[in-house]
Each structure stands twice: as structure tokens, then as C-alpha cells.
Design brief:
Blueprint (H helix, E strand, L loop, with lengths): L20 E3 L5 E3 L5 H17 L2 H5 L13 H5 L5 H11 L12 H12 L6 H17 L5 H21 L5 H17 L4 H4 L2 H13 L3 H6 L5 H19 L5 H16 L18 H4 L8 H5 L18 H6 L4 H11 L19 E4 L4 E4 L9 E5 L5 E7 L2 E14 L2 E3 L6 E7 L3 E10 L3 E10 L4 E10 L6 H9 L19 E9 L5 E4 L6 E4 L3 E7 L12 E5 L8 E9 L2 E8 L9 E6 L2 E2 L2 E2 L5 E8 L2 E8 L6 E3 L2 E3 L3 E7 L4 E8 L6
Antiparallel strand pairs: 1-2, 3-4, 4-5, 5-6, 6-7, 7-8, 7-13, 9-10, 10-11, 11-12, 12-19, 13-18, 14-15, 15-16, 16-19, 17-18, 20-23, 21-22, 23-24, 24-27, 25-26, 27-28
Helix pairs in contact: 4-6, 5-7, 6-7, 6-8, 7-8, 8-10, 8-12, 10-12, 12-13, 13-17
Length: 675
Amino acid sequence: MTLTKPPSKSNSSKKKASVAESVTTDGFTSVTPMPDAATWQALRKKIEARRQRHPASKLFGDDALDGQVYLWGLASLLNGPVDPLSTQLATLATADSVQIPLTDTDLIPAAEMFLEASRDGRSDLAGDVGCILWASSLPALTLILPLELWWNLLAELQRRVASTLAHDEAESPHHLMLAGELGLTLAYRLADIPSCVARVKPSASAIQAYLDHEDTIDEALRTPHALRATMASIIRCEELMRVVAKRKFKKSHQATAEEIAAWIAATTRVDGSQVLTQTTSREVALDHVGLVSRTSKATKKKKKSKSQTSKPARPIAPAGLMGRAMKYDTDSLLPAFSASLGQSQSGGRLAWEISLPESMWHSDVAGMVAMLPEWDVRRGRTFVDYSGKVMQIEIMGGRRTLFRGPLHTTIELDGVSQDPKGDWQATCEYTDDDIHYLEMEQSFTGGVVLQRQFMVIRDDRCVMISDTVLPAQFEPNQDAASADAEDHLDQPTDPPSPFGSLADVQIRCITHYPVSDSVSATPDEQTREVYLHDNKRRAMMLPLPAAEWRIGPTACTAEPSHTENEPHSVTVTTEGTGAVYSPVWIDFQSRRFHRKRTWRTLTVADDLQLIPRNIATGFRIQIGSEQWMLYRSLIGRRPRSVLGKHLVADFFAGRFHPGDGGVEELVTVDDAPPN
């Protein structure tokens, strides 16, 4: 390729560029060989002139200030503060010529380390953002790096683009960042190099393919800590496509960006940090910094209207990443972000009444769920990441996180600990105006399965979490056992136990509820309740299978951890034979904390016979005048009676009204196969 203008016929003796075009096997041109010193000086002047004519502020506006547009979402991706090198590169990428240090020797070993690490194989998403930072800084780096190092850096970045285009799936965030944004960044920043310009069409198509793919959202949620970085890349890609490829986002592209933005709003803590990460408000400040009112100064000077028909004040909007992301659907995302950040309240109104997104978000492919009683963050929120063998949770009581970390369960059969055999699988999901409900299960060794329920009672500010240990539906030796039974058909036998090989096995279910570091867990002196508090009481935990009073025997205990070697948690231990059901009721409503309360295990009848709790069980919870009931069938699907209500269901929850003895249904789960 020619890096300088072609010599005219009258000046044909001028030296031509020593860089030639070569075509790689992927069909794209690559920069080789390296230019000589004279050509490099001419090229560098062109690159610098273009950088001054087209600064980052021209592309990204005020978001380019101090490089923040390139740092959006990076703290959450790194699960901590942004490293100094990324900050330095982002500043270089958006700096004026007078701001560039001409002798920054720290960047030379940093670039060498980047190239060395690139030889080790494919990078993670943090490495992808690093590639974008290096590419954005290349114009400024012409004044800092030696020619050979700069050229090798460009060649490696182009190799990343070509490799990702050839091998990555379109729905992968790697495809968006490397095949898409990185390619367009090189084309925009280094438009004087033809091999970089050649990336425009394939990179723009890669971005469109990513946004059009039906699995894009689920794939993005597989790495929830990278959700903000993915959103930031989409925002930058939109501007790059508009300027470089002369293409605009379609409505379908904006819809994809809108859904990702809604997930970000749903998974944002009140301080702006992302749930299920260790980041702090200060570390993620660029994602939401500069909260400003959308109301103009002139409006503020007007006197308050006494008319009852006046419009409600607009929510306060975030700036930074969230401020830019909400523009994909301002009517919906502005109140969502504002409510998540505690800047406005929904006032008890339903989501559809004020154009808010849905209040339950679930991706069973990614194993991620957000359950919001309301978008008003004061109502608390429950988050679950069940993508791995050990589930991660974060539960908020109002604005404060009370539980955060791994929700780990140990199962012991006759004292022998069992191990998980696979990942969690969602088996039931339901949401309406009353509750959010999710049920999952995980297979364990020893022929058992662990089922877990999450139920958020939206208006009552209560959360029920339960673990159930059941016999697996299909025993490993079922065929052999059937054959053996056929050989003994003529011999009298006892009726088979519904628990199979677990009929006489003592089961111990130990669940560790991770308590946030800023919260203390204190057991009640007389009852088996556990209080969660910081400077004041925030929640009550009621272990429903336990005897209420500490005096006397019990099949269930709930005790805070006390040793330094144990994680900060509340350990709930429940024992039984054949099957075990271990629910915990968590109340976050402060007005109920000082009311009289009690809970009881209910008797369950089947065909006028009382049945043991390892077949089916029920519970009644009473706090003040408010009462709830639960029913869970562990074995068999039969008509049963509990608290005067006849049920044929796997699970039932309702509000109990003692005045008329009626039960208001909240949810009924029935595992009966369809007809």
C-alpha cells in the first residue's frame, strides 16, 4: 500500500513508501512490512493531523472528557478499581495534542507485555476492552512508542479482528468488541492506513449481526459482571457506525440495547454499583456520576402550582453510562434507573402505570434472575446467579444488602457428605402482581436431588427460601432392581417404600446463608429467630421447621457463624428421614419487627390419616394480625387437607384470614403432567 500521496509525473523521483499490501488467508489486508524512517515520519504527521481534526470529543461529545467513555463498565468487569494503565490509555485516546506526554516510558514495557500476553492465546472480555484501549490510543502513541513496537501493536490488533471475525460466534460479546468495535476503531483512528479502512464493512456487519442475533441477551448475561462493559461497547459502536460506516442502528438494534440497559437498571444497587460484585460506589462513579435534573432552570423559578392536575416531577436522570444507555427508551429506562439509584419512588404503583419495565427478569440460559417487588429500591430486591454449581445470591432489605455471596448447601446421608453432580436447572417460574416465584434443582450423589425455591411476596416485603432433599426420580439401578423383582414375583413382599433406597437413611441438610459484611446476625435469646441488623434491625429470619422455643427438641436449627474460619453466614440445619424440607421465612418489614409473632408446623391429612412431614408438610406464620400459610408435598400427588384447605398440588402459598378462616391464594404449583 502507499502511505504517502502518489508522486506526480513531474516529481517521479520522490521516494515511494516501502510498505506494501499483502492479503492474508482471511481475505483482509495486513500491514507488512514495517515502513522505513522517512515514510514513518510522513505517516505519523498524517495520523497526528487527523487526530487533531477529528478528536474523540467530536465523536462522543462530553462523554469523551478524561477518557470516561472508554472506562464505562470497566470497574464492574474487573470487580474492583480500574487499573492505572487503562486510565492512562483512555486519557491518551481522548487527549488533545498538548496533553500528550512525549516521553512516557511506562507505556513501552506495557505495550511489550501486551504483545507477550497476546501470544498466550485468546483474551477474556477485560482483555478485549484492553485491545480497544490500545487501538484508540494508537494515534497518540505514535509520539511515544518506537516504530517497531507501534507497528507490531497495530499488526496484533488487526490479527485479533481477523481471527474473531473468522472464528467467534456472532452472539458472543467477543464478536461485538473485537470483530466489531476494534475494527471500526482502527478504521476511524488510522484512516490513512488502507488495511485499517478495509475493516469498515466487515466490522460494521459484525456489530449488526451481534445486535440481530436472538441469543445475544442470554450470552451477555453469562458474564453479568461484563454487562456494563458490553453496553458501553454498543454505545461506542453506534457512534462509530454512524461516522465511519455511514450506518444507523435499526429499531431491532435499539431494542437489543434497550433490553441490556433494562438488565443493567435491574441489577444496579442504590449506590450505583452492580449487584453480585465487590465494587463500590466510588469505583463505578463514571457509570452514573453527575446526577442532574432534566428540569430547566426556568421551570425551577416558577411558583409551585396548587392545581391537583399538575404533572408529576420528572425523575432525576443519571449521567455517564446509564445516562447514555437510557436514551434507547427514555420513557421506560429513565424512571427505572432513577428508581434503582434511589432518586425517585414508584409510590406503590404498578410498573405499567408509569411505563416501568417488568419487575422480574430471568434468563434460564444464563442462570440469572432479578426479582424486584417494585422498581422502588426501598422495597428491597433479590438476585440469584445459578450459572455454576454453587449458587450466588444478593438480597436487599430496602437500600441495604443483607445477604451476599454463595448460598451453599451440604447434604449428608447417614453422616456421609454428598457432592453435586451437575449445574442448577430452573424447573418452574411464575410472576404476577402478588409474587415472584422461581424453583430450581440440582442432582447430587447418593441418589438424591436438591430443590430450591425462591418466593418474593411483593406487597408484604417477605422472602421465602427453601431447600428440599428428595429421592431422585430415577435410581441408577432401577432396571436391575426391576429384573430382580420379577424373579421373586411368587414370593410375598412388603409394599415398596416411596423413598426407595432412602427409606431408612438419615438426611441432614445444611444451608449456609451468606450475610453481608456490613450486617450482623444475632439469634433471639428465647426463640429460634435470627435478627439481621447494622445500626438498627433490618430483617428477621424464621426457620420454619424448627421448634419456636429454644427449650426442647427440634429437627431444625438456625445459628450465625462464630468462628474466623467460617464465612459470615447463618447456618440452617434440618434433619429427617427419606426426604427433608427446609424453608426459611425472611421478613423485611420494619413495622412488624416488634409485633408478637409465632409460627407452627401444620398437620396434613391424607384420606383421614395424618401423614408425616417427610411425605407432606405445612406451616403457618403469624406476625401481628398478618398470617401466611405454606404447603409442600414431598412425595406423591394426592388430595390432602391442611388448615381446612383441600389441595392437590406440589406447593401452595397463601394469606390466611382468621376472621372467616379463608385462605387467599398467592401461588399454586402443580407438577401434574398435562393431559
